[in-house]
Design brief:
The structure is a homotetramer. By secondary structure, the first copy, chain A, is an alpha/beta fold. Chain A is built from 7 helices and 9 strands, in the order E-H-H-H-E-H-E-H-E-H-E-E-E-E-E-H.
């Protein structure tokens, strides 16, 4: 049997503790809902980690045992320690996949990997988003229809200040008049990165069947392969006679 | 003084001859309106060419004297001769710029350069399009606001079957619920290509100030440079001793 | 058990019939050697097809039963019928993978998908090529070392007139002083395309273990997924009230 | 007359002060040689700045007056203050161009913009580099031949751990058997970035005519345009009735 893909679902887990409304939507936390979705697929071995655990739950050991990390954060981006960001970045460069969700666009983690401000337009107005598949041949859209809808979502709109993605997989249409590159892939080092827009904390979006399918597809796509380990940094002799 | 950029505005020029309504919108033809916009800028030297001229107005001489070619076609794509398409393709590979407008997405010319079907979703329903600037650092959006609107346009929607563009410059929002990569750049050979969505024949879109600015910016951006001429195809000796 | 990936290995099969030297290197044909490499992997179901079969062995039925097509041609590019090229192009757009090998760079098939001349520098001088892995996180380099060598190969050198690839996976170093993007990926429609430089007919390159590994990895990578089927081309009603 | 492009040539200026051999090659400093090359072109207004000046010579005022910044550093990367890196990053996102030269690949500045390790293979062996033009239509290669040579250069080789560039403009061939993406473009925010490999401190490379032409072309290409200023970050009202 093929080896399982080890996914660590990370979340700051604060809104759910402070707001009864959000706790009602996500009684097991946002990470709990994302993990529950992934656990229905036997190819994954799923753990969770949260901000207030020691080392944010992202110890060297935890990361060494992680193939793909998902990241949800919002109100406490600044509390994430820089040394943990550096540690995760190193693992991504070595090949660990990263899935950044919704407000994670403004996390230290995503900014570190992108090199840009990652700013965007936004609005909380309970409006409809329709996500259009732009790259129907991409593994991340396996099993999806040509588009799907979220009846209520926070608006995220262009200009989204990110580097040109490897692939724009989804473009979102918002009822209030905006558009957004709602699903984008990047490569950094050996690591594959997917940014996915849905997931405002006041809506039960991580229970949505299409959203769950996308996250599961992305976790499979982002799992590291078996490419060469590059020893870089030391001087090396010529391969041809000089 | 810097040399002028020689732009040839090509159009099939059929709708305007057959439909009084369209002739009223474009009394000088669609090509006439596009050319008039470009002529207000002293950096351009502007000519026009149309389908029913000998060799569609795209003789070897005409192409040799063209830095940037704009292309509008719709009802007569099939009447464009394959040998002319091949001739234009060769010039693009040598460095001539190409700006493909609106229904030109389905022309032999664009399909030849893309290698895909170039199909898309569409609807004629007099609906609003809002074009969002996605790459504010691109020369094609110089002088533009963060977005601009067309009160009535034909809807073109994703999935647009094109190769991944070098840059997605605009994304269009349509009132009927669709999105579109309304401005995209490509490189083929030494030639720079820009696809721009606006321009349905039943609306006076090529008189719109923002649309004209984009086309002028694109013509400057697509003008050929002075890069090396590559002599490829013949066997050549080694540069190092073997 | 997962379904097998159905690979059709296509070759023009002419050099082997006309030159005893080449027939000695490839007694089962170039296609035979490529197919033999793939057959060692139980995930593949492998067939071959050649130029002189009816419809070049690429009937509608054969293509419908193909997940990934590999293409080797050289001296008879012009004999491939345009309608077969169009048929294969349509299948690629629908999702079939395409692996273009060596001199296939100048085939009608590759040119059709690229839109460029696909010309390059070249030389037959029995020189060494060293292929460097540029994207160690790409599935196509699974199980490879940081570089591998071919003791004798035809030189293919830049400028290679292709559109900017999605990924440059290998860059080749040639002893005579040239470099080449020896492994490149593209997406066209739903289809994934890989161009791989090694394979001159006068050397036993398709028996090389690293070359075989790359082709097998590419065949897995290029196999179609289960993304949405896009019905494009017909007018469609709005999704929102206008 | 068109406005001049204001270029600030930044260098750490340490090797030249400590090593008489290097001071002999670059009596005005590496920055002095780069600036001298740019000053021959009347389109540029050129200043220099170095590490040991207050705020490394990169004050808010200096950056506000800079259209394009060139960056050379090597032995003192760690001495560059993080707040200055953050300040420069902000200006790049706003549109300032950045040209990173040679060992600047390992600077905090370049790593910040890339998000990767920017590590590579290397060797000091006085070996020949031949730089091949890969994108002959790119403005950065205007006026260049198909390739040019540096008789002695430090070897930089793949795997170069950078994100997939927007364009690979040059690929370098090294006599010792390595290859390198020696000229690469990126976009970050509104800023255009060019990485260019040549320039080891022990060779007079910034006096080479082709190298100077490339840097001048890059400075023109990287100069900011007049695209829209994006006000991002604050909540905004819908543009359509919800």
């Amino acid at each position: 049997m093929a080896q399982k893909i080890r996914v660590t679902v990370w979340s700051e887990f604060r809104h759910e503790k402070r707001s009864p409304e959000i706790a009602k939507i996500y009684p097991e936390g946002i990470h709990g809902a994302i993990a529950a979705g992934l656990k229905t697929d036997p190819r994954f071995e799923v753990r969770t980690a949260t901000l207030d655990e020691p080392e944010h739950g992202l110890t060297q050991k935890a990361l060494a045992d992680t193939d793909v990390l998902t990241w949800w954060g919002h109100m406490a981006h600044d509390e994430v320690k820089d040394e943990i960001i550096t540690r995760v970045q190193q693992r991504i460069i070595e090949g660990m996949g990263l899935i950044v969700l919704h407000s994670g666009h403004y996390s230290k983690m995503f900014k570190r990997m992108m090199g840009t401000s990652c700013a965007l337009r936004w609005r909380e107005a309970n409006e409809k988003e329709r996500l259009w598949v732009v790259e129907p041949g991409h593994p991340i859209v396996d099993g999806l229809p040509p588009y799907f809808e979220l009846p209520r979502e926070e608006m995220y709109g262009e200009r989204f200040d990110i580097p040109n993605p490897d692939a724009v997989v989804f473009i979102g249409w918002f009822a209030g008049g905006n558009v957004f590159r709602s699903g984008c892939t990047f490569t950094r080092g050996k690591g594959r990165i997917f940014y996915f827009q849905p997931g405002h904390e006041t809506y039960p979006i991580y229970f949505d069947a299409n959203v769950r399918k996308v996250i599961a597809n992305a976790a499979r796509w982002a799992a590291p392969g078996d490419g060469p380990v590059m020893k870089l940094g030391d001087s090396e002799p010529p391969l041809e006679k000089l």
